[in-house]
């Protein structure tokens, strides 16, 4: 019997994914630079940029654009994984990540110090599920299979970043729960700083997952 060949990977999907992620990073940098006096990158989360103002206009559309750009880039990666016939579990988990980003883009977080609302809880829940789904998808993506996997050479890097992502989520979640219990006045964990660390780790994770798609173009 002939040995099964690995499925083809798509450089087009890789380029689209990279473009979406690059746009998200550019918007995030712009928000940090122009709203540094309004939103603390150490204590306040990325979601709180929706309550910033740029020249009298709300920064909410810019924050939504950042989330949607990252979601669309992730959808392109997802399409590339489907073409490469990766595990259905990986596709589903990455789809959950994309859906969570979309919810975060369209449903605002509750303002700091105000009563919790359904929309705010939905935003927080979607963010938590999304940030757990991405490293889970990355971990399963590098599971050893019968055919040679294009992601196998980066297995150690991808799984190391997935572990770092899980650890960052636990720190952010623990700090969030602690703040809910003790109140904002007793906030001890720098939620904003750790969330930005999580954002950076997940971007690195996504880029590492995209690289095999881009490598197909060079070949």
Structure report:
This is DUF998 domain-containing protein. Keywords: Membrane, Transmembrane, Transmembrane helix. InterPro entries: DUF998 (IPR009339). It holds the Pfam family DUF998. Helix 1 runs antiparallel to helix 2. Helix content is 67%, strand content 2%. It is globular and about 50 Å long. It has 6 helices and 2 strands, in the order H-E-E-H-H-H-H-H. The N terminus is likely disordered. The longest helix has 28 residues. A two-stranded antiparallel ribbon has the order 1-2. A hairpin with a 2-residue loop joins strand 1 and strand 2. It is mainly α.
The main sheet orders its strands as 1-2
Report the count of strand segments: 2
Radius of gyration: 18 Å
Mean pLDDT: 86
Helix content: 55-70%
- Helix-strand pattern: HEEHHHHH
Total of helices: 6
**Model regions low in confidence, pLDDT < 50 over at least 5 residues:** 1-6
| Percentage beta strand | under 5%
Distance between the termini: 28 Å
Instruction: State the secondary-structure class.
Output: mainly alpha
Largest sheet: 2 strands, antiparallel
Rough outline:
globular
Summary?
The protein has 219 residues and is an all-alpha fold.
Keywords:
disordered N terminus, 6 helices, two-stranded antiparallel ribbon, 2 strands, 219 residues
Topology:
Layout lengths: L10 H24 L18 E2 L2 E2 L1 H24 L4 H19 L11 H24 L13 H28 L8 H28 L1
Antiparallel strand pairs: 1-2
